[in-house]
Amino acid sequence: MNDVKKDYMNYPKGHRLTFWRRLKKNKVSMFGLIIVIIVLFCAIFANFIVPYDTALDQDKTARLLPPSRIHLLGTDMYGRDVFARIIHGTRYSLLIGLGAVAIGISCGSILGSISSYYGRMVDSIIMRTIDILACIPFILLALTVVAALGPGFTNLLIALTIANIPQYTRIVRAATLPVVGRDFIEAAKACGASDFHIMVRHLIPNAFGVVAVQATMMIGKTIISASTLSFLGMGIQPPIPEWGSMLAEGRDYLIYAPHIVIFSGLAIVITVLAFNLMGDGLRDALDPKLRD
């Protein structure tokens, strides 16, 4: 009995080592992971890299300056340091991307597991509602919610969270539906486990792999959507440093000061690309069909 328990406890560790070994083999994904770590570092330690006031302070004598030693990435039309605004903009972009996806996964996992576990009428009601939301394009759904609630960080987060829920509900339902009738579920019921316990401990973990891969892809998509809405004036409002609003402010000075648009655009491209590359590696590492 002790040997069986020992083998069971050691399995997750061996599984993690196998996953890490497969992920390390993908050099492109490791490059994406390194970029993601750098971006997270900039977001967490933004105030230590450059004070937040530097991103807001205006200097009319230093308007539209090109990159230099004093201003590494130049200044914008108000004399604000572009480097400082991009660094602090990392916080808002990651908060929106990670927050909307995390909350979307939580809500989608609950709805998807309820749908697959109870089935019948409950399944029909939940999935038909999700089908209605899924018929609306991601960015259009988010734009509709923001238009109803108004611009701002909180409303933008709510809008993108709602837009994320349908696909995670479908993913979790599809991953857990084949498991509902398995013997270990029936054994858990016979032991008196609550429905909530069964869904959290036995159903939702079966969708972990596909949800993790989808999440890394959707973080990039959500960041782009947040920047798009801010660019349109429906997201985070100036003077708060946000990459999409920086693009909107710099488009009128594209000829005279292209660095404003170029560097803020590169920040979006590099961050989204890094998450997508990491997602490709996670997909390959978690694929059970692959063999060492």
The helicity comes to: over 70%
Could you describe the largest sheet, including whether it forms a barrel?
A: none
User: In CATH's first tier, which class applies?
Assistant: Mainly Alpha
Shape: elongated
| Uncertain regions spanning at least 5 consecutive residues | 1-11
* SS-derived structural category: mainly alpha
Taken together, the total number of domains comes to 1
Label the CATH architecture: Orthogonal Bundle
Mind telling me the C-alpha Rg?
A: 23 Å
Strand content: under 5%
User: And the CATH topology?
Assistant: MetI-like fold
Count of alpha and pi helical runs: 13
The helix/strand order is HHHHHHHHHHHHH
The CATH fourth-level homologous superfamily: MetI-like
Round the mean pLDDT to the nearest integer and report it: 85
Number of strands: 0
For the record, give the distance between the C-alpha atoms at the N and C termini, rounded to a whole number.
Answer: 31 Å
